[in-house]
Amino acid sequence: PRRVAVLISGRGSNLEALADHAGPYRIVLVVSNKPEAPGLDLARMRGLPTLALSSRGLDREQFDRRVGDAIEAAGAGTIVLAGYMRLLSPAFVRRFAGRILNIHPSLLPLYKGLDTHARAIAAGDTEAGCSVHLVTEELDSGAVIAQARVPIHEGDTPEDLSARVLAEEHRLYPQAVSDFIRNGSGC
Ligand code: GAR
Q1: Nearest CA to ligand 1 atom 8
Q2: Residue 52 and residue 68: Cα distance in Å, rounded?
Q3: Which residue numbers are catalytic?
Q4: What residue stretches are annotated with the Formyl transferase N-terminal domain (predicted)?
Q5: How does pLDDT run across 51-108, given as a tens digit for each residue?
Q6: How far apart are CA 71 and CA 30, in angstroms?
Q7: Going by CA atoms, what residue is nearest to atom 5 of ligand 1?
Q8: Does residue 174 have its Cβ closer than 6 Å to ligand 1?
Q9: First CA to last CA across the chain, in angstroms?
Q10: 3 CB-side CA count, 13 A
């Protein structure tokens, strides 16, 4: 199986979905930029190697170099961002060019960045969703490789919509990562 590293910052429900899915990959490292991320406990409960790295006192390039060195030391060829809420430096993206995937809670190219569900509701959209895409230097802008759609219902709060989309994320992401690996992308 392909050795993958998963990068998280928080809850870790997508990490959990990836870990519990039987695909052509093995999670060899979970990295969090937040030492208190609940997702680290989910990883530990599954016996996955974890690394919590605080960015205090480091600039973006220095921090990302440490993350990248740990990923290479673990022998991971593909990097899967799962709720990783820190911008990646251009140098990191170049170092792992074509080998970094992200899941974003909108139907890209709509609603890059934060507060996607509130923005979709405020716009009067009738559907929302999530997108798996390749990571490039520009935020949420790399090629989309998979999407899932859900309806927006009258009276939905951002929390309602978030829960509906998240259920689709958990289904979509392990499948998209598996397809990406099987189709011979990354290394
Ligand atoms: C997910 O909804 C993911 O799509 C989103 O953060 C959440 C993480 O949840 N990611 C982004 O907004 C990336 N900009 P999780 O920690 O439970 O997987």
Answers
A1: 83
A2: 13
A3: 104
A4: 3-177
A5: 999 999 999 999 999 999 999 999 999 999 999 999 999 999 999 999 999 999 999 9
A6: 9
A7: 83
A8: no
A9: 11
A10: 11
Cα of 107 to ligand 1 centre, how many Å?
14
**Beta bridge partners of residue 29, listed in sequence order:** 5
pLDDT in tens, 106-136: 999 999 999 999 999 999 999 999 999 999 9
**Atom 6 of ligand 1: nearest residue by CA position:** 83
Residue of 8, 13, 42, 86 to test ligand 1 pocket, by largest number of atoms within 8 Å of CB: 13
At 35, list the tokens: 């030492």
Written as six digits, the tokens of 187 are 């290394």
Prediction ipTM score = 0.99
Distance, CA 159 to ligand 1 centroid (Å)?
13
Residue 187: pLDDT over 70: no
- pTM, entire model: 0.97
